[in-house]
Structure formats: structure tokens, C-alpha cells
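Onboarding guide, step 5: your first structure request.
Type a short instruction followed by the sequence, for example:

Predict the 3D structure of this protein.
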Amino acid sequence: MMRRWAGGGPRALRNAGRLGLLVMLCVWAGSPALAAPVSGTDFTGHRVRLDHPARRIVALTPHLVENLFSAGLGDRVVGAVRYSNYPPAAKNIPRVGGYNSLSLEAIVARKPDLVVAWAEGGSPDIIKRLRALGIAVYVDDPRRLAGIARTIRDLGVLGHTEGTADRAAAAFKHRIAGLRKRYAHRRPVSLFWEVWSDPLRTLSDAGMTGAVIKLCGGRNVFGHAPTLAPQVSIESVIARDPQAIVASGVAETKPHWKAYWQQWPTIPAVAHHHFVAVDPDLISRPTVRLADGAAELCRGLDRVRKELKAR
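The system replies with C-alpha cells like these:
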């Protein structure tokens, strides 16, 4: 003869199942990951407060889209700007304009509970108007390599994905530390960083690029320029005798950029064909992929360094 279940039979079993489901739903609804308030301070000192971890996020620059994915929040990005092309999934995110031509209406239509913006992105008015509407805005402005890790960690706090964000930030810092240990103290290589040729424009050491150049043991001949992206004359480049010319951006749009420099064969970099091209998406965006761009630059400068030593 079959014994009855000690818990009270099939009806009790069904009731227990319903009770268990009810408990699970209550736990889910009250989970700190889904309901607890979160807060953080952005790069401008503004305190960002959310009633719950961010669920719908709009990113106003391509690099912040990347950083949100790194922080484990890619599936919560509901709006992005043009040229948000990495990772591949970012291409499918609805657009809200370009980072210099944003549409407030398009941003608001995405119903974000968090908007992430860049201090240098040309959107101060949009930020003010969003905050006036009660929408939380986090502004990042990393000027040094450690700032990239900070942004990712901050986003992880605001989305309650700290574990993923911390791992991504730590991996990035580890790669940068490895490059610094390997290249930073090698023989310096003087370089001219070409942003554009007409007009001739370069970068100073005031931004992220300056940190990467130093990381690779380079010396920027316009490192102390008073502005971040000064326009310079070819005569001033010639006077500084750079041992290498680095380009990011022009190599893709102007395949024959090296030919431009052949007009001035007295420049050491030109005389010895010491040209280094770096993928602009890797070197200009403050994301974890900057470690890849830094590695490209370090290898290029090290090639120049070895050739200089061999002569």
C-alpha cells in the first residue's frame, strides 16, 4: 500500500508550490539589484541619484556606448549617437542624433532613467535641459588613463553591475601597467602627432593622447602647447626635428598621407621613413580598447627606436 506524502498530499504540494512562487516574486520585486536607490559622483562633481539601478540608458557619445557594454549594461542602452559602432550590437541601437547635433526630443522619447554624456561633447545645453526635466545625467571627462577605469566602475555602480564593471576596469589597468613597465622607460623617441594636414593640426599632452605617448616612451614635440589641438605651421615642425610622425585618422581617409611629408626630407622622421599609423577608433576613444591602440603606438615607436639605435 502506497504511503501518503508526509507533507499532506497533492493539494498541499500545489499550495506549497504557489507559496514558493509568491515568495520568489516578492524577493524579485524587492531585490536590491532591482529596487534599491543608487548614486555616484560624475567627473564634474555632480551627484547622480537614481531611485533604482538604471534600466534604460541613453549614451551621447560612441565611447560611452562602449563603456556601458564593458560595464555589463549593453542590453540596457536604448539610445545612442551616430558612429556608435562598437561592439557590433551597438549598431542596432536607436539613434538620437550626433554628439554635436543631439535631438532632445529623440532622447526623451527613449524614456531614459539615465543619460551618460561627455564633458567635451558639445552638449552642455542638452544636459541642463535633461536635468530640468528630472532625468539623471552622468558626465564623464577622463583626462588620464585611470579615468577610463573610473568611468566603467561608476557606470557599474549606477547599473548595479559592479562585478562585471570591476573586472573590466581591472583588466584594462593590468594591460596598461604591462605596457608602461615594458616601454615607458626606454630611450625617448621625439614625435609629431598629426591629427590633420590641411590645416596642419596636432595634439598637446593635455589630453589622453599625451598620457599614451608617455606610456610608450615617446616625447611629443608639441606637448607643451597651450591648447589641446593647436594648429601649427610646417616651419615649426621642421624646427623641432621629430624622429617619428604619428597619424591617427588621416591614414584611413588619405591613404597617401606619407607622400605629403616627402616635401620636407630634412625632417629626420621623413628622411628615415619613420611613420606610424594608429587606428583612430582605438587611440581616440577613452575605452578599454585604448589599450589596443596604445599597444599599436608602443610597437611603432619601438620599431623607430630600434632603427635609431642601429644607425
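Each response can be followed by summary notes, for example: The radius of gyration is 26 Å.
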